[in-house]
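COURSE: Structural Biology Practicum
ASSIGNMENT: Worksheet 4, Part C
STUDENT ID: 0417
INSTRUCTIONS: Below are two proteins. For each, the amino acid sequence is given first, followed by its structure token string. Answer the questions at the end about the second protein only.

PROTEIN I
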Amino acid sequence: MAKHYDLERLGYGKNDILLMIHADDAGLSCSENAATIQALEMGIVNSYSIMVPCPWFRDMANFAKHHPHFDCGIHLTLTCEWKHYKFGPLLPYSEVPSLVDDHGFFHAKRELVKKLAKPQEVKKELKAQIDTALAAGIKPTHLDSHMFTLGLTKELLEVYRELGKEYHLPIFLSDQLLMDIGNPDALLESDNIVNEVHLGNLKAMKSTGLAELYTQKINTLKAGLNVILIHPAFDNMEMKQICVDHPNFGSQWRQMDFDFFTNPDTANLLKEKNVKPITWREIQKITL
């Protein structure tokens, strides 16, 4: 059975509540980059990861290169879920045909990746993404997976592990997320997993907004390593066009993420609860 990270080896007490507030999808758009940078600079968002195949990757890579003190991972990407905004693999389509649709873009749905993607092509493309990030001057602290596609099958999960070992980087694993995507039995005894992952949800966003949900989650955090996954961006014309017919993790959702996690009241709540911030850089020290 997979194990949770040892809090004492990380330098904390076994009853401490550790929290990483992690911003996914940097590089996706200009809006995503600007909101992510602002959230990082304002304080409590303390980790982020970059999507290398996206059009705004270079902008975010430049930030990462010149601000290496921020905890930065590579958001390994195999899907493009947007209706009109499209991107595909770094490698020529002829080298990774199982990863693309008829137009040469990444598949829009995880189910298609699960059905069609060949593990050897997945590894080839993801190595290209990591190598491109390294060549751009990024010094990553970890690897994670866009839409958690690398947890879809045991074969893809093994590719994920191999990449972590090859590049000497911890990988983000969660039994909770594996269960959510229908692959609950894929973990190995050697895997390290976070205690709990927290996300917003569409129902809350449409009814009371995400602030109430996030406040509740913070108030009920348990001891161990917790991760809140957010996707900060501004609800502007660019993001509205990207998120056409896609309210789930859409532009309104992303604005709510930004607003809540840059609000001084949120920082005060974390202090009141004695929540201790942690980053992948700290985890990296005990896992490699």
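PROTEIN II
(use this one for the questions)
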Amino acid sequence: MKIALVTGASSGIGEAICNELKANGYKVYGIGRNSGEIICDLKDTKSLHVKIKKFLKTTNINLLVNCAGVGVFTPHEELNIEQIETLIDVNLKAPIILTNLCLRSLKKTKGHIINVASIEATRHSKFSALYTATKSGLRDFSLTLFEELRKAEVRVTNINPDITKSNFFDKLQFEPSYKKEDTFLLPQNIAKTLLHVIESPLVITDITVRAQKFEITKK
């Protein structure tokens, strides 16, 4: 049985990915702050290091999915230091650390790393400077790491979802326009894309998933 390690597994895209993987024969270990097989706050890098190292002593993984993410969309001068640190820690620092910890295991299994970035990693939107910086960093990390790991036969894929109906928008000032179904994605769409990526005989290094139309609603 193949083993997957997934962040952000408790809700939204991460939860959908876990369900899709389980339905296709994977044993899934979720990392979450309050729930999951490995309880850990991704901002606590020391605890993350200790718990993942302990986990990997007895388990080799085939798939690492860095899916956890947080967003703030506001003028940059209105952000506080805690918000800045949280986005950098969760969206960029944690995936880099987790990848570092898991690489020896993934080399043994000739596994796959999938980073879930964002459509914002491919464009420059107003009030998205910090979020875009973290997701662009994650995307560039993925694309560069692929070049490093080609000879080791470890695959690396970056997925850029467009606006997706999930709890990501619970604390934001806007959300998808749910009145029109062709203006947003569902978490299951991203999960199906991930399955396509891992089943492909070729390496898909970067893929963007979008709805046909685009519309948001201000709260």
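ANSWER KEY EXCERPT:
Q1: Residues 81-109 form the longest helix (29 residues).
Q2: The domain at 3-218 is CATH 3.40.50.720 (Rossmann fold).
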